[in-house]
Amino acid sequence: MLTPDLSPDAAYAALSARDARFDGRLYVGVTSTGIYCRPVCRVRLPRRENCRFFASAAQAEAAAFRPCLKCRPELAPRALAWSTADASRTLALQAAAWLDACDDPGASVEDLAAHLGITSRHLRRIFAAEHGVTPLQYLQTRRLLLAKALLTDTGLPVSQVAEAAGFASARGFHAAFTSHYRLAPTALRRAQGPVTACGEPALRLAYRPPLAVDALLRFLAARSIPGVEQVDPAAHSLSRSLRLQHRGTWVTGRLQLRFDA
């Protein structure tokens, strides 16, 4: 299900051109393979009649498509900014933002509805109308895709991956992952995930080009807080000390980010 302003033919044109402006805005499920991809995927262009287009990864997975291991849908940038003109759409997008930030394994639709001040029935209706899936399907997809990224890019133990992705137990995570993707979590494990200079796991993220990286880093360098932030425009990197609350516990550390050349 695509947005009204993007037809399947227009989506196929974007896929044919591998147009990065649509990365994160649409996904293509290929019926002949059962795989769904980002529009920038470098595999051979599928035939038009074999393509089904979706506005989110959750919609593609709800239609029983599995994520591509080459273009990795979990790396797609988030959807573009939205307008607050429509009240129901605003609530549905606020619900998705709450689910994106949710780290409570016991979170329920009733919790989300209470947070928004609406009934769970109304929440399910407006969420499905906007996103094409239920809130729980959306949350499950977000957690599984995060786990997939952690399994692929880091050397974290599977139990820690399950916890970081928001699953209540490693056993439950293994069952959900195996059922959803038809392969065990360890099948995605590389011999050694990338690490930072401090020896901590590194995670690859994506953004939607174009982005003026040099200008952005110069802007941040001129406004960096001594002792808290460090920006190196020449190395395309920045770092910042952080103090975050996670599941009721305060965690301190340092975030390091580097843009690929």
Characterize the structure shown:
- With 261 residues, this protein is an alpha+beta fold.
- Among the domains are: 66 residues, DNA Methylphosphotriester Repair Domain (3-Layer(aba) Sandwich), CATH 3.40.10.10; 46 residues; 46 residues, no CATH class.
- The chain is 38% helix and 14% strand.
- It has nine helices and seven strands.
- It has a four-stranded mixed β-sheet. The chain has a three-stranded antiparallel β-sheet with strand order 5-6-7, covered by helices on one side.
- A hairpin with a 4-residue loop joins strand 1 and strand 2.
- Helix 6 runs antiparallel to helix 7.
Please work out how many helical segments DSSP would assign. Answer: 9
| Spatial ordering of strands, largest sheet | 3-1-2-4
Distance between the termini: 35 Å
Any guess at the CATH architecture of the domain at 8-73? 3-Layer(aba) Sandwich
The SS-based structural class is alpha+beta
Order of helices and strands: HEEEHEHHHHHHHEEE
Uncertain stretches of 5 or more adjacent residues: none
